[in-house]
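User: Structure please.
Assistant: Input sequence and predicted structure:
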Amino acid sequence: MGRTTTSAFLLSNRNDVTMQLRNPVLACFVIAATALSAPAQGRTIPAGDPQPILQIEAGGPTAFVTSLTFSPDGKRLYAAGFDKVVRVWNLNENTGRFELDPASYRIPIGPGIAGTINAIALSPDERWLAVGGQGIVRGSAGFRLPGLYLPKTGAYTEEMWLDEGTIYVFDTRTRLVRPLRGHLGPIWSLAFAPAFDGKPPLLVSTGRDRDMETASYKGSVRLWDVVQGELVAERTDMPNGTGTRPGLAAWHTGKELKQVRVGIAWEDGLLRVWDVASNRLMIAKDGWNGKRDGGYNNTAIWLPDARRLLTLSLRYPIDGQPAAMQIRQWSDDTNGPRETEVRSVTPTGVSAAMVPRALAPVSSQANGQIDQAAVVLLWKEQKDNTTVEDYYLYLRDLARDNFGGYLAYTRISVAGHLPALATSPKGKFIAVTGEHGRSIRLYSIQDLLRRKDKAQPQILRSIGQTFRFAAFVKKRPGTRARSERTTKLDRRRYAACSGSR
């Protein structure tokens, strides 16, 4: 049997919820109070299940890992995903390996996708942990109310849509947690702005909002003061890209609370910069065709020393030039981002089609100076009339005289779920998902630079196996029951689980 986790009880405490840790037991009981007040927004979050919820701790991810983040010093790794829990691994400096922390962070969950986590973010001082995804909705089916179906169209109230878009912010010192409510639908991505003297920690979030008047959907981006639990600003005119994980990068432009800019890469070919103080939305005009960043652009990172924005995207064929992946550097100009550096990062001599998937800043000396970038690329190659898809991790140089230059690469895994990637400016490791997103691979940066494709990662995974489908087979008289394969019809008729449960 797998390791057990600590149990957590959520108790009402003014605008916060207390996470009281107990000793490890055979299972984890998560009990949500029935009337927890949300700060500032004046709305309540839905009541949790009044009965204990049995959960086995398997010692690692049991479903897709959607988000990874390191502590600022790189000594703790936080991971979350479709198994509805945030786990933490601590670096054992004697062995150089990460070890699972007995305590985890848990939010209210329900059956199916209710409670799945799409994004986590950690404040620059590691005090605040933000968690968002598919929130549980009042009035929907619970673990002890099977068969209830609540159609979203026409049945969801505004409060229900707010339930689905709830962000939970944990105080990692006191274990208090407070909800942020404002998104009218699931959360897609989260990012904190860098620390700034005299300002509270500021959180940026994106999501897919329901328009209550037109009964349609739209993308949204919001800025939050997590200390006060208040919404600072919002825009609800973003693209409606279902399943997209927009890239986010935030930086300060002055000492006032709203003097912040947010770089947004929504995978629609455009690089947007939201100037919060003026509420202007600026679009890059110096891309490869005069106005675009490029295809598959879902990455954006801020380089504080250079005061530049970094993106990764696909340049489509134009003017006789073949398609190529490009890493771009943009200046923070008054009237919007302006391209200052661009370099093709498509490997030479490779026949496979390649698509950019993830980007993260790297400090090769673990001293906070960003001089490299970690890049995850999707390779698509034809072998024996079959398309083979793999993920590869690259290290690219950001030095001016070798911008975008190749440093190292290694194959991660067979392609599957959109990969999660994390680094720390003062850390010595790169974390990336592998094995269809159900495990985490930890690479030493120095080992990767030295041994390249021979680098050996530490792999964080759960015990046992995860099955995407479970099917029942009915044995008829005089026939054999075959279970080694399942047809598409069988899967539709008898599918019992997919990923997390």
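The first helix runs from residue 158 to 164.
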